[in-house]
Write a structure and sequence with these properties.
By secondary structure, the chain is an alpha+beta fold. It is built from 6 helices and 5 strands. A 5-stranded antiparallel sheet has the order 1-5-4-3-2, sandwiched between helices. The longest helix has 24 residues.
């Protein structure tokens, strides 16, 4: 985790994603908009070729439902990037001991551990229903910021 991402997280209380991490994280949103975008493109193409066809009643469902689902998934995925804030009186060494114990119990694999942040990932089995999680912990004076999202290096799951 770069110092820029840590700074952004502390200032905005939200996990900062790179371009490809955004593509991965918001992939379900893009998937929801494929059908409405295709239908819209087809009708616009016909309109500009001076052969417009009326929108059929069945097509409106393929425009409305996926669009509403896409908007819903966008807000869900956006909300998942927010950190949960925990106030504490413990110092960083005490917090790290606790985090190490939790990581061991929950089988987290710690990838980054420094004075500002800890990033850990899970590697569950095939039958778990998840591709894995990325847990990000930031230290901010008397607060700890915690976030868990689907592993950004793997497929996103609902």
């Amino acid at each position: 985790m770069t110092s820029e991402k840590v700074k952004y997280g502390l200032e905005n209380r939200e996990l900062k994603l790179s371009f490809w991490e955004k593509v991965q994280h918001y992939g379900i949103v893009g998937f929801c908009f494929i059908m409405p975008a295709t239908l819209t493109f087809m009708h616009l193409k016909d309109y500009f070729e001076n052969s417009p066809k009326p929108i059929k009643s069945g097509e409106t469902w393929f425009l409305i439902i996926p669009t509403l689902l896409g908007i819903l998934f966008f807000y869900l995925q956006k909300n998942r990037l927010k950190f949960k804030e925990v106030n504490t009186n413990l110092n960083k060494s005490q917090l790290k001991k606790i985090i190490d114990k939790v990581a061991e119990e929950l089988e987290w694999h710690i990838y980054i551990s420094n004075s500002k942040a800890i990033v850990a990932k899970t590697h569950p089995g095939f039958s778990s229903g998840s591709w894995g999680e990325q847990i990000t912990i930031l230290f901010d004076n008397k607060k700890v910021l915690v976030n868990s999202v689907c592993d950004l290096d793997k497929k996103s799951s609902l």
